[in-house]
Amino acid sequence: MKNPLLARAFALTCVLLTAFWSTPSSAAPIVVGGKNFTEQQLMTEITTQLLEAKGFEIVKKDGMGSAVLRQAQENGQIDLYWEYTGTSLITYNKVSERFSPEDTYRKVKELDAAKGLVWLNPSRANNTYSLAMNADEANKQGIVSISDLAQAIRSGKALRFACNSEFYARPDGLRPLEKSYGFDFARAKLKRMDTGLTYQALKDRQVDIALVFATDGRVPAFNFVILKDDKGFFPAYALTPVVRKVVLDANPSLAPILNALSEKLDAPTMARLNASVDVSRKSLREVARDFLKQSGLIG
Amino acid sequence: MKLAQYSWRPCLATALAVCTPAHAAGRDIVDGLMQFRSDIAYQSIQLMTMVAIAGALAIVAAVPLGICMSRPAQRRAAVIMQVLNVGQAIPKLALLALAMSVLGIGTVPAIFGLWVATLLPIAQNTYEGLRAVPRALIEAATGMGMTPLQILWRVELPNALYVIFAGIRTALAITVGTAPLAFLIGGGGLGELIFTGIDLNDFTMLLAGAIPIALLAILTDAVLGLVQRKLVSRGVTPCDGKN
Fold first, then answer.
1. Separation of CA A98 from chain center
2. What count of Cα atoms within 13 Å lies in the side-chain half-sphere of residue A262?
3. Can A12-126+237-294 and A129-226 be said to share one CATH topology?
4. Is A196 an interface residue toward B (CB < 8 Å)?
5. How far is CA A83 from CA A31, A128, B40, in A?
6. I need a labelling partner for A4 at 20 to 30 A (CA). Which of A20, A66, A124, B234 fits?
7. Does some domain include residue B10?
């Protein structure tokens, strides 16, 4: 470096960068992540508002795909988000055995601890994957369970199915489900689309069956019936806050706050909150604030 | 700064270091891509069908529109042009979302959205191409006693065809690149592999969608280039090397 100006600029940059990186970690903002569907966007917003009210500095990053979000948390780019026990068990930890809800939680808590992730207390909201049909249509076809559906497809009924991109390729998704129940959607009958659209597609009768989430408010609002998972293919998907251990150690007050929130959540509550966003078209911000006030979590 | 003189050495070393494992990994990637071949074939056909329908409809609608705008009697050209420019500025994703809110979910709104996106560059190029025809040619044709319609068919369009074709080629290649977004509104196509790849952080699956799309866009442009060579008269093709 012969140019003195350049050398000085370089030195200054180094000093600034060092100063920037060496700020104490306790002052670092907490990064709250979330996936790309309503319930997750809602949980991200609720968590952000709650923690901000408790004096934390929060950076919100929502709308990610499951695997990307999990990868980001393992890499330390995301500090906390709400994960489902079944997703971690089957998709991230590649466990193919089926457990009871309690054992599923215990198993993922143990497996993820090795990766520096802490599972706090699970909520009572089990947001399992479900297949849904319009109630009148299901009645007419006499389909109550996924076994009935498999039977109908095997007997040659050309039923159309809508699901999101993720479900199609997950290890707890469509292909293993088809295998377990012994049926096959024809390629042309399989409509893949953005997550939230499957409900609209089913409501508008553009498909006959749609992938839905059990706690989604649109299931009762649009008069859908959920097909019974009579072979118990889907595990429990208890909505649970998962935090990086490093962050939890640096912020010990985080666990009780999130556990108190988790305590307030069950399936009807989640369905009601989701419905106020998807059916009543209220803003995430408003729904989150009202919920936090009503449940007494913030004053 | 003398640095530049020596910088090729580390560059070469880096390139070698990157390429050697990349070559070995190349075979893995090809194997990985092969497992998606039935998906790739199915979705490519879905995607190209959408592009073909949207593209054909766009040509049918946009070329006459461009001709209309270029007629001297048509004083609203500037207004239409502004509308087209605004249309161009709308993100393609927003265009698809708007189509969905009107036409519902599936292939039809996807084709409609792609149609609008393809319409604009073709109409613009038709207009500009016709305007760029030398005045002298038109005056000569008028002097020969041709009617305006004859002038359009025999003088203006042949001379503008090169520019119009450039518009069609660009528009369709871009449409192929836009078509994966159709997945988001249930239109199918190679977007299925790309978006599933993103959601599941599966790089091979993402490539299995992205590489065919790039190839299809290049192929579309090449095929249209061949058609162009057949259709556009040699005499009016600018800079063909022998001018």
1. 20
2. 21
3. yes
4. no
5. 15, 12, 32
6. A20
7. no
User: Is there a contact between B176 and B47 (Cβ–Cβ < 8 Å)?
Assistant: yes
Q: What are phi and psi of B54, to 5 degrees?
A: -60, -40
**pLDDT at position A25, please?**
45
Output the pLDDT for position A54: 94
pLDDT at A98: 85
Q: pLDDT of A199-234, one tens digit each? A: 999 999 999 999 999 999 999 999 999 999 999 999
Indicate yes or no: CB of A197 within 8 angstroms of CB of B198: no
State the pTM of this model: 0.78
Contact A89, A235 (CB under 8 A): yes
Query: Which pLDDT band, with edges at 50, 70 and 90, does B3 fall under?
Result: very low
Whether A191 contacts chain B with CB within 8 A:
yes
Residue B21 has what pLDDT?
A: 55
Return the CATH number of the domain spanning residue range A12-126+237-294. Answer: 3.40.190.10
> Which two structure tokens, joined as six digits, stand for A127?
């947001």
Could you say which DSSP state residue A97 is in? S
Yes or no, beta carbons of B105 and A200 under 8 Å apart: yes
The three-class DSSP label of residue A64 is strand
> Within a domain: residue B9?
no
Q: What is the mean pLDDT of chain B?
A: 85
3-state secondary structure A223-243: CEEECECCCCCCCCCEEEEEE
Contact A271, A220 (CB under 8 A): yes
- Has residue B24 got a pLDDT over 90? no
Closest by CA to A137, choosing from A122, A152, A123, is A152
Question: Which residues of chain A from 147 to 176 reach within 8 Å of chain B, CB to CB?
Answer: 162, 164-166, 168-170
Residues from chain A contacting residue B196 (CB–CB below 8 Å): 165-166, 168-169, 192
B186 touches chain A (CB under 8 A): yes
Number of domains within chain B: 1
The correct answer on CATH 2.30.29.30 for the domain covering A129-226 is: no
**Which stretches does DSSP call E strand in chain B?**
none
Closest CB to B199: pick one of A67, A191, A204: A67
For chain A, what are the domain ranges? Answer: 12-126+237-294, 129-226
Strands (E), A66-197: 80-84, 117-119, 129-134, 161-163, 190-192
Bridge partners for B91 per DSSP: none
- B229 or A117, which is more confident: A117
